[in-house]
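User: quick one, fold this
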Amino acid sequence: MNVVIPGLPDLDWTNGPVPASFDDDSLLLTAAAGTDWTNDAFGGPQQHAATALGFAATGDFTLSARTRVRGKRTTFDAAVLAIWGDRDHWAKLCFEFSPQGEAMVVSVVTNEYSDDCNSRVVTDESVYLRIVRAGAGWAFHASADGIEWTFVRVFRLDFDGPVTVGFLSQAPLGDRCEAEFTEISYRTTVPTDFRDGS
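Assistant:
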C-alpha cells in the first residue's frame, strides 16, 4: 500500500505494509497483535514484527507530529516516530501506555541491545513528538503544544548504512493499536540548541 504525505520524501515500509490511510492531514496506522521492536537488554528474544512507514534519511532535518492512540489502550501500545537501520541499530520515540496504566513519552535506542527510558507522564490524549538529525547525531523531543519542546535525549546509532525515519504503530500485548499522526512536519532545518525549548 503506497501512502503519500505532502511535504515528506517518498515513503516505504521497513517490514511490509499494515492497514494505513492518510486523509484530511491525518495518518492512521493499525498494528496487529504482538507487533513491536525490542532487543532485550537481558538477552531475551528479539522482536521486530512491527513495520515503519518511512523515508530514506539524508542530511539534517526535523520530523514532528502530534500523536495519539485511538480507542482503549493496552500495555505498551504506542504511536511512534521511528528510526531504522537494521535489526541491531534502531531507535524509537513513543507515546506509550505503561504497565501502571499511564500514557508516557518513552524512548528506546538500540545499538545491539535496547536502552529503554521512560521520560514523562502525559495527561492529555495526545502529545507532539519530534526527531532531529544533526550530522552524525540524533535528538528526541516532546511537546504539549508543538511550539515549546522538552528535551528527551541525544544519541548516536553505531551504524554506517542507510537509515529510514518515519511512523510506526505497535501492539506488543493488545489485539491491535490504531496510532494517529497529525500536524506532520518535515523541515531541513534543526534547532541550534537541543535543550532550550526551541
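User: anything notable?
Assistant: The domain at 13-187 is CATH 2.60.120.200 (Jelly Rolls).
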